[in-house]
Write a structure and sequence with these properties.
Elements lengths: L4 E2 L6 H10 L6 E2 L6 H12 L7 E3 L3 H13 L9 E5 L4 H4 L5 E5 L1 H21 L12 E4 L9
Parallel strand pairs: 3-4, 4-5
Antiparallel strand pairs: 1-2, 5-6
Length: 153
């Protein structure tokens, strides 16, 4: 069980202290060893079997959120009445699920261009012997609210 539970990474510390902390929320983070459906299923069961079951689960992808929705249904947990579920990607899958999935949308074309540019720069630096310094890029996001979320009862 401990292999699934990890602390929130430091880079999220300030956001957690700010937005979540001011709301009195201390998140429980489940990290899967892989993105396969069985790993996602195990992580969802771990969260949903807790005596202090969460009222919301935010997943790092819409595919993982889909698995959380399935596990909730298997356990008789009503979404969104008893549990809100949100994904990340705004994958076309999000609008085909029932309930439709609340998700975070990011410009995937901009992410692809940035990734290609970073790879090209790293290759160029390696070829010329120049030390390469990776950089962090923050992309704007949009919250797309659909049927899988609601305020806690």
């Amino acid at each position: 069980m401990d292999r699934y539970r990890h602390a929130v990474p430091d880079r999220y510390g300030e956001a957690r202290k700010g937005a979540l902390g001011s709301a009195g929320i201390e998140p429980v983070v489940v990290r899967q060893p892989a993105t396969d459906p069985e790993g996602a299923r195990a992580g969802a069961r771990l969260l949903l079997a807790r005596p202090d079951r969460p009222t919301a689960i935010l997943c790092f992808s819409d595919a993982i959120a889909h698995t959380v929705l399935q596990v909730a249904e298997d356990l008789g947990i009503r979404v969104p009445a008893e549990l809100s579920v949100a994904g990340f990607d705004d994958n076309p899958l999000a609008t085909r699920l029932r309930p439709t999935l609340t998700t975070v949308r990011q410009d995937i074309e901009a992410k692809g261009r940035a990734a290609a540019s970073a790879l090209t720069a790293a290759i160029t630096d390696a070829r010329t012997g120049t030390p390469h310094t990776p950089r962090s890029i923050v992309f704007p996001v949009d919250l797309v609210v659909r049927e899988s979320t609601a305020p806690p009862a």
